[in-house]
Amino acid sequence: MNLVIIGVGLIGGSFAKDIKRLYPDANIIGIDKKEAHVDEALELQLVDQKGTYDALATADMVFVSIPVDALVKELPKILDAVGDETVVMDAGSTKKLICETVDNHPKRRNFLACHPIAGTEFSGPSAAINGLYEGKTNIICEVEKTAFKLQEKALEIFQKLKMRIRYMNPEAHDKHIAYVSHLSHISSFMLGKTVIEKEKNERDIFDMAGSGFESTVRLAKSSPDMWTPIFEQNKENVVETLEEYIHNLERFKQLLLSGDFENVYKEMNNTNRIKQILKGIPLTKNEN
Amino acid sequence: MNLVIIGVGLIGGSFAKDIKRLYPDANIIGIDKKEAHVDEALELQLVDQKGTYDALATADMVFVSIPVDALVKELPKILDAVGDETVVMDAGSTKKLICETVDNHPKRRNFLACHPIAGTEFSGPSAAINGLYEGKTNIICEVEKTAFKLQEKALEIFQKLKMRIRYMNPEAHDKHIAYVSHLSHISSFMLGKTVIEKEKNERDIFDMAGSGFESTVRLAKSSPDMWTPIFEQNKENVVETLEEYIHNLERFKQLLLSGDFENVYKEMNNTNRIKQILKGIPLTKNEN
């Protein structure tokens, strides 16, 4: 198998690791805007060789894992360059603009719009880990627009990666993911900001923060290069989630101010069922 | 050593485990409002026997790990009952009201006001784990009001538990802890609420949530019995942190709405340094 990975960071690099394990004979070509990233990926043996878009014509599969602003720019060019039997998959955290961008592309049938729900707060080739995708959900959009044979080729790999597949339209994807992923990132970033602003003495944060704070603020370590274009592309949905979140925080504050601790209790008690909802979400085993 | 633990949940039970390991000859007496909890603690061999406040007169040490509303009610009675050489420590997440409550108590010198920054989102005796306190900070308030010999007795144990000690006045404790602990819990509870309200189909949350959401919403599994009285006692500080948090979220929303993604990027980039600040915070090894 000839696999080209465009963007050899955490997502692309982890995919490379799995493919190497599942298909020892695979030839993996790495492409990255940052020369240093491909060099690092080579050194870490994530990829077998460096490449350019010239490699796309003979690729069996292309995995594009770059920030979503770069994705909408590059995807048409990538499709221009691939062969008829090549399946191109992305891993973008937004789907609507990406699907629209290639909707009329002559090679639309070579593209499978994917969003594997997997990752950590780290980035770059050195953040790549084994088994990142195992047990995780892969959301596939507009599957009917991809050539059936190429769907099959991709699905065989997802099956070997032990991923769960969920089909969804791009609008629904972007709406739901704003709640369960994009909002978490903002809540975490702003929590980090609030605490840093207040606690000018960083030693205080360090001394007084427990694992609870560490966990809640974990996503505030995420890459702004990755997240700024996600928020830009999914602006409407994200703003809606933020408004509801702020509304709920305001209400909680009012309950505190008015001394209504019966309802403070109820708010928390009702939310406790997140425990049952989340039970069984496969955690990433090794998050560095 | 005769140790009485009042409240044999996660905090008291984990303390019992450590003491058993460090002092194999210790006799540990468990007291809990919930009969089932003491029975469970006995069964799990966290404690050696059940007890009542009659056991306090001959105790070397009393560890009080109960919700902070119960703490302000029980602490004066506990001090009434202890012997002259008994040191009583609490583990409450608020310190001002607790210190005020016993400030004029004739046995004030037997009390050491503590807040070990340790815990998980779980509760009850079965949540107790080994080594919960290792490497964690223990904040001690008004240390000068505790008899020196009893300070020494307690500090010897904290040292053996490998805890870091930090001295602080109760007002400063409550102010700082509102930022690095109490606010995280509210941000997490309200995130959970926002997502549950929106995603009526819980399967969607389960399928689309990644480890990022899981981590950010982890504290929303916490016990409302424990947290309602904390928010009540620390209301003023908590409301202040909430106002700043909401302000920051509002500002982020405005940046999104006005399409100012340069500043969206900067907000996240500036907050990324939480990575360095948190580096080295000891995580709890086994969080169930």
Any overview of this molecule?
- By secondary structure, chain A is α/β, with parallel strands linked by helices.
- Chain A has 2 domains: 2-170, 3-Layer(aba) Sandwich (Rossmann fold); 173-278, 6-phosphogluconate dehydrogenase C-terminal like domain (6-phosphogluconate dehydrogenase C-terminal fold), CATH 1.10.3660.10.
- The first copy, chain A, is built from 12 helices and 8 strands.
- Chain A has helices at 10-22, 35-43, 68-81, 96-101, 148-160, 170-198, 202-208, 211-216, 224-233, 235-257, 261-271, 274-278; strands spanning 2-6, 27-31, 49-50, 61-64, 87-90, 111-116, 137-141, 164-168.
- An 8-stranded mixed beta sheet of chain A has the order 3-2-1-4-5-6-7-8, with helices on both faces.
- In chain A, α1 links the parallel β1 (2-6) and β2 (27-31).
- The longest helix of chain A is centred in the middle third of the chain and has 29 residues, at 170-198.
- The first copy, chain A, is globular.
- The mean pLDDT of chain A is 94.
List the helices and strands and how they pair.
Two copies of one chain form a homodimer.
Chain A: E1 2-6, H1 10-22, E2 27-31, H2 35-43, E3 49-50, E4 61-64, H3 68-81, E5 87-90, H4 96-101, E6 111-116, E7 137-141, H5 148-160, E8 164-168, H6 170-198, H7 202-208, H8 211-216, H9 224-233, H10 235-257, H11 261-271, H12 274-278
Parallel strand pairs in A: 1-2, 1-4, 2-3, 4-5, 5-6, 7-8
Antiparallel strand pairs in A: 6-7
Helix pairs in contact in A: 6-10
